[in-house]
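Good day; I would like, with your permission, to put a structural problem before you. What I wish to show you is a protein chain and, alongside it, a tokenised description of its three-dimensional fold. I would ask you to consider whether the tokens describe a fold that such a sequence might reasonably adopt. You will find the record immediately after this paragraph:
***
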Amino acid sequence: MGEAPLVAGVELGGTKCIAILASGPDRVLEEVRIPTTTPAETLPALEAALDQWRGFAAIGIASFGPVSIDRASVRYGSITSTPKPHWADTDIARRLEARYGVPTGFHSDVVGAALAEARWGAGRGLSDLAYVTVGTGVGAGLVAHGQPVDGLSHAELGHIRPPRLRGDDWGGICPFHGDCVEGLAAGPAIAARTGTKGEDLTADHPAWDTVVDALAHLFGTLALTGVPRRIVLGGGVLVGNDFLLPRLRRATAASLGGYVALPEVEDMDTFLVPAALGGRAGPLGAIVLGGNALDAARAGAFTRA
């Protein structure tokens, strides 16, 4: 077998975009980082970078969301109801697909990261897992049988509303839901509640109680879907505070109460694990999405022949 084809992978993030020309983590030929400002500035800058690259057989895009992934929808390939200024209803995938004329894969950034961690990272060898990022926001991507778990849209599990800790009535900061998991546990929520960034809080600060409780309910909910054999954790809040992981394991087990009596879930040391790909999970996930789109296009062409 020859080398895997080159794919142009684009991770569209809330603060920066990363574009890579690659076939996998061991073959990255180009990388460009561009600030995420407005669509009028950011998208032409991305296109200028891709215009310089030659030989890519597909494009993969892993974007902050919510995004429309339903190809039957007129909004397919667009960012939809994001609170990020200027980006709501911005077309991404159809624009790039029309410009470059190659198969284009498009999904949420967390699903992209989940696919990358499943193929090359902390979920390698597992066909079913979840990836959760806790940073500027909270997002969860599910993969089953090696494919994203989605339908009408992608999961937005960071916006479930957990039971509140007794005596805690802080309203949260999510502009849509207030005290959903993202509104309670994301980096901006920690800063809004305490006046201090999470990386500067001591391990015994009481604000962590709410963060751990909200995230444990999210992880327990993921386990109850019956999908993940492992939950891979990324994002600045989790990566920058190593003391959280043991607390999250204990709290998640308590949240489940022994109900999911499966060894894969009961062993929290292997069920909740840190991400292995770090900041490369998103752009490498875009490479997987592009490769999947190329495979689908080739299969379709073969079927029609």
DSSP finds eleven helices and twelve strands in the chain. The longest helix spans residues 281-304.
